[in-house]
Fold this sequence. Notes:
By secondary structure, this protein is of the alpha/beta class. It folds into 2 domains: about 1-150, SPOUT methyltransferase, trefoil knot domain (Alpha/beta knot); about 180-375, Maf protein (Alpha-Beta Complex), CATH 3.90.950. It contains 11 helices and 13 strands. The two termini are about 45 Å apart.
Amino acid sequence: MRVHLIAVGSGMPRWVAEGFQEYARRMPRECTLVLREVELPGRQRGLPASQGRTAEGERLLAAVPAGAGVVALDERGAPWDTLELSHRLEGWLGGGRDVALLVGGADGLAPECLQAAGQVWSLSALTLPHMLVRVLVAEQLYRAWSILAGHPYHRGSVAGRPPRAIPGPGRRIPRARDAGGPPASPTSPPDLYLASRSPRRQELLGQIGIRFRVVPAEVDETPLPGEDPAALVQRLARAKARAGRAGLAPGDSTPVLGADTEVVLDGEVLGKPRDAAHAAAMLARISGRSHQVVSGVALAKPGREAARLSTSTVWLRDTTAAERAAYCATGEPLDKAGAYGIQGVAAVFVSRLEGSYSGVMGLPLHETAELLREAGLAIPRTP
């Protein structure tokens, strides 16, 4: 996947180009960051700002690669913090298509750009020069990726956990981030590995005091023909745990935790929406009625593998088309199964829940704790 930063203007000062490239070169091959500069003709004296924005908007949209999702940077958008941006980046990576970030000129973005955008992001409440925005966006994207990849670049609090210092010169930078509990070290290993880049699952696991590290686990999540949703999430949770174990060093017997969550309506797995229009349609289907959220969690260690299932029923109140459109404009539903996140703005739509709140978020903590206790890890932890 590529993230295309499409910005008005060229011939930026040297520090802008160098600053952008410093962070762009750090991005991984599976998520490259490229800059597309839009050249504009000089504006005639006395020409209304609206006409200038229209010309800029036409050229910005013309530069968007075919099939790419569009994100507009505008002060009227949702104020994503760094952790929220990591959520969005996770969704973009899972969506399998390029993303175009639109940055306007001094007069802002044209209405046509905002209408074309599936998500609108307010970078800051401050008024920022557009040349500086290029560097800030590049740095924040790299920081968001570092959170997902478990890289220690991000030193601030993540999901309520304390900051972690970056290793000094000559020390190995670990591939996986310590999360929750005391920091792991060669003399203090993690309790387990989490086979998920989801910040929400990391937040939940850290909530119960587990010291863990994130390991990559790429699996094919395509349902099998006729596969029941409950069987699907348990199969995928087991597959992710196995994939995580396959990447460990020889002799490492630390257990690996995998999880998968799906939203089910009348037996149909809804998946994640393709775009804002699909999200609105999905929300309309589940509005004013109940649906199920099934979460599978699995723990794998040498000679042992076990899984648990959590099934919850969620009722959403009747929502209007205007409410659904406003929610989709925040960008929140685009990386969520069923097109909503119970821990976010969509909480105002939830009228009733039977089951596990943490399971609906993506990691059922009761079932997770059962697996950990069976593996010899007491929950709650003894200080």
